[in-house]
Fold these 2 entries.
Entry 1:
Amino acid sequence: MGNDAQTGPDRPVRQQQAADGGIEIRAVTEDELPLWDRGVARGFLRPHLDEGIEFRRLQFEPGRFLGAFDPYDPTRCVATFRSFDSELTLPGGALLPVDAITAVTVNSTHRRRGLLSRMMHRDLTAARERGTAAAVLIAAEYPIYGRFGFGPATRGRPLTVDLTRASLRAGLPESGGRIDFAGMAEVRKLGAELHERWRRTRPGALRRSPVWWKLHTGATSLPGYDWKEPFVALHRAPDGTVTGLIAYTVDDTWEGDSPNCTLTVHDFLATDGPTATALWRLAFSVDWVRTVSIGVLAADDPLPLQLTDPRAAVPGRAGGDFLWLRLLDLPAAFGARTYRTAGRLVLDVTDREGWTAGRWLLEAAADGTGRCTRLEGPADGPADLALDVAALGSLHLGAESAVRLVAAGQAAEPAPGGAERADLLLRTAVEPFNPDSF
Ligand SMILES: CC(C)(COP(=O)(O)OP(=O)(O)OC[C@H]1O[C@@H](n2cnc3c(N)ncnc32)[C@H](O)[C@@H]1OP(=O)(O)O)[C@@H](O)C(=O)NCCC(=O)NCCS
């Protein structure tokens, strides 16, 4: 990749460069990882711990670790940005190659001078050139990424279950399988294989890399990421197939001579409902445990309704935006997902980068396949929906309602009823869900 002046076609980026004191943005080399890692720690307001380098080396890919350098002190990395290739499961189960963005930081000394804007522009331009249809990220703060065309595309939130108030209802379907604890090496192998199957069943899921499994099983460490070996239990179906996994830790809280422990769920995968129930039964029946705290659960997960008192399950966060999606190639992104009904939608899309801007026709056939094509020439009547690419990102996986976006002023329906037609076409029976922060 060259510098922004070569690869970045638009004027605002160049204007920004003039205003930022000649700060250079470039891909860092593997030898520069210590500098880069120090920059990440400063940006995330964490003390720096040198041992992070081994982990960074495992992740390193030339060209995908960006750093910003101020000529005042070129040995200091004042902003960081990293992307890696992943795959996003779409409604219907297709895997869409995506650019996953992480480690986005700008040091407090250099904030609001356009450094994030330049890094983002450079990375997304490169992703498009590689033919990647979309980009994804987890937003630290809601207001950061909409301007770059990202919209919240999956929901997920923590859930705390008070076991003194509720338990799982009797009579839920039994799995007929068995549950056993597994060692970390076994989890790295069987957990990864299970996840490969699970992610194909859940729109919104992302691929987990081998480094992800190493980090979450203690085979490598990231200083500052407080990993303690969890209890990991695997569920096996009667034929021996691993169909579920739960990873949890338990704190050691006692009040006088009575236990009052919290079981914290760090990972939960189940390829079918009875497996999920069996794993929840395990978690809810551990001696000494009075509270189960689930790190992230899909907004439409049935678990609260499976309790004797659903009010005992308290969501930890309002809103619950989790994975954010930036569409880069509409024909690829909408052509790869499936649709529950046949239909036709005309979209007027704005995109400040221009990449997806224009009028598009989305058509779904009765067999569930769809295609999205650009409409050239003069407009033939009003569009069903007029919206920014960020709002379209929120609709793409089916999590958000077009009717709701119109009511919120985030989309318009020039043709009456357009939002309702969009919802009929795009919404899914099961919400997309991604449990992984990255
Ligand atoms: C968030 C962060 C990366 C922004 O970097 P930056 O270089 O200051 O951003 P830019 O100067 O390119 O800002 C571009 C625009 O986004 C806005 N913006 C940036 N960060 C914002 C935030 N946290 N909240 C609201 N608006 C924000 C800017 O005001 C600017 O708006 P404008 O175009 O209308 O002037 C930086 O503040 C940071 O590192 N924060 C702490 C770590 C963090 O939260 N990282 C994100 C992890 S997901």
Entry 2:
Amino acid sequence: MVKIVLDAGHGLRTPGKQTPNGEKEWMFNNAVLLAAQTKLKMYETVELLRVDDPTGKTDIPLKTRTDQANAWNADVYLSFHHNANTGVWGDWGGVETYTFEGNRSSSKADKLAQLIQPRLVRAMGLRDRGVRKKNLHVLRETKMPAILIEGGFMDSRTDIHALRNPHTLKAQGEAIADAIIDYYRLKKKSNTASPSNASMTFRLVTGTFLSKEDAVVAAERLRKQHGWTVYVKEES
Ligand SMILES: [Zn+2]
């Protein structure tokens, strides 16, 4: 099992965490988290635990989140964020991936961050600000490798277009999930419904007719209506 903690950062009511137009950081973070979660759920041996409030209404204290991750014995902690510089529109921008800078810094976290950052740059199409180190609570107080992702600046005239595009945020979440999938060599769950059908055929007996002509007419109708391959087989 690979136990993955997901954290969409500050709640909706946390002051200051917004674009100059008042769009909340949590909305962007949450969209990325959900895309990553959806993708990771398609893989075997994955367990997920979300430690922020999935409604965004309450800003769960960071200590509660890291305590929960530690008690759960998580393998990795992912915290999704979007940056702000001055809070007024500017020309800065770009994406960055953080790990802890202190002496408990983890080589696993560094390796994972190196896998995430180029995928993040590609998914968002924004400037590459690189893998960085910082002394942040969720990176410091977690016993497992922890990563904090800043997926673009909310007060950047360039980045904001990517942040307002739901497809780009989805691509960001999937890109981060891809890095996890690569790192842990996760195997995709087999889809039970469709793949086997390609190599199988199914026989459908449509009816019994007293004359061959009637059978041929019925077969022709089925061919035309459904595009089926229909044979008339004589039985005595
Ligand atoms: Zn943040």
